[in-house]
Write a structure and sequence with these properties.
- The chain has 14 helices and 25 strands.
- By secondary structure, the chain is an alpha/beta fold.
- The protein folds into two domains: 3-19 and 30-290, Rossmann fold, CATH 3.40.50; 303-554, Rossmann fold (3-Layer(aba) Sandwich), CATH 3.40.50.
- A seven-stranded mixed β-sheet has the order 7-3-8-1-12-13-14, with helices on both faces. Strands 16-15-17-21-22-24 form a six-stranded mixed β-sheet, sandwiched between helices.
- A hairpin with a 2-residue loop joins strand 4 and strand 5 (48-51).
- It is elongated.
Amino acid sequence: MRLLILFIVFTYISIPNKDTTSKTNGIRPFPTAHIISIGINGFLDGDSIYQFKNAESDAQKFTSLIENDSLLLYKYVDTIKNERLQDIPKLSIHKLIGSIATKSNLKDALLEIKKVSKPDDYFIFFYAGYAFTDYENEKESFITIYEKEIDSDSLELSQFKLRELSEFMNGIQSKKQLFISEAGSDGQRFSNDLVSYFIESDPYIAAATERNRIIISNVSLAYDGSNCDSGTGPLLHMISKSKNLLDIFYNTHQYEFRLSKLEIECTVANTKYFTITRENRIREVLQKSISNLQTRGIEGLNFDTVSDNDNPKNIALIIATNEYKASKTWKNLRNPINDAEIIGKILEEKYNTQIVTLYNPTIDSVKKKLLEIKNSVDERSRVLLFFAGHGYFSSIYSDGYLVFKDSKEITDETYLENYLAMSTLERMINSFSSKHVFVIFDVCFGSSFEPNSRDIEMNNYENLLLDITIDEFIERKSKEISRLYLASGKYEVPDYWKDSKDHSPFADKLITILNEEQEFISPGKIYSRIEGNITEPILKQFGEHSLRSDFILKVEK
């Protein structure tokens, strides 16, 4: 019995076109491939330690396989006429082999990649070792990894829950992801757990995002070698022989056919050895379930879904929570809804923005409304999202979370299922077709939405001299994508303060700024006046933001 897990995550890298190629020089750069390659020969069975032959060498072999695949992809795309590419994918490799493959080193590698990876980057996770399912106690599946004892240089074999591993990977923003597993004595059970934890099962999140994870996993006893290649696991042998692993995203059925032919040629125990699960296919099923729900009374949004060339739609989703009934951890707040109502009214009456509100919502109602927004906007829409209420930051997963009315006690929520992870929210927002999105957080730890994104060159247009009309200027700034977010503070932020009992310090100033503006509002204009707030606000970009673009709402006089 042995385990081979390969997790490849990468975003949109299909053939470049006019939309994805830089307008300045005709070059579309390749992404960086962030690779974690893990190999552990040792494993525990009861109190005894046993050794595989090939797990650690497989981790070395896999790195070479990916290097060759990246070159093949480069040659393939470079044949397209009238397109030039800047470079082949850069490789950033974390090798965790043998005693270096500790739980802390794995977590550090995942968190580092989360910090530096971009939407167009690759993330590749490879594991060769041992896995098992605990049937008696937790009834969860685990991979084997080393645990370094506290205040000691000695190591001991330990376990890492699949479910916990999936939480660490949740914050990596990528659309195309591949997870390959050759694992354990009960391949079917382990394969089921892979699908359960790594394929999105929430219908609203699945429908509102564009990620496609593909899982290739054994469905019977996994082997350390085979009669075709005693020095490599059977599934890795098939993958190596089938060539160009990346084909699975563009020619899934052809790639599966190639693997199946190799499976017949190199039969393992005369039985079916692997299966392939596609998240896109699961998404189709989940979307049908949402359609069935919608026929039973779920309301759509009450505004036009298409912008015309002269009148792009301005839309604001205003979400605020005062009441927290499911947990003693979170005390009720005084001002979020009051702040939200006034901000929404100003946006509607002064900035010609159509308002959608959710007050004291459940997490499901928030996810559903985000999906409705996605389905109701087009490329020219400008979407503003405002969140007010409690926020939480998990030092374990290095991710922030929005708290809602039905969020449970932290001690009861090991995986925070009734909280909305900032990384999940970003993934949902990135799928909006609208070019322009501005997100405002007046919650604790709002800066964790995308804490490692670049600061923007703040432009408050204070010295702007126009030879054109404001409408023409706004149109010029709207040609490319803008993705910006403003957080009321880095860490904890107050619900009210001594100078304003009716508003948070941040909302109090935001209301004043929106009221006093005479021409147009932008994130830079807001930040230039609110930067001195006691909570230390943060303004950053996220996603595919263009430095030439901006999010601008015109004052309707």
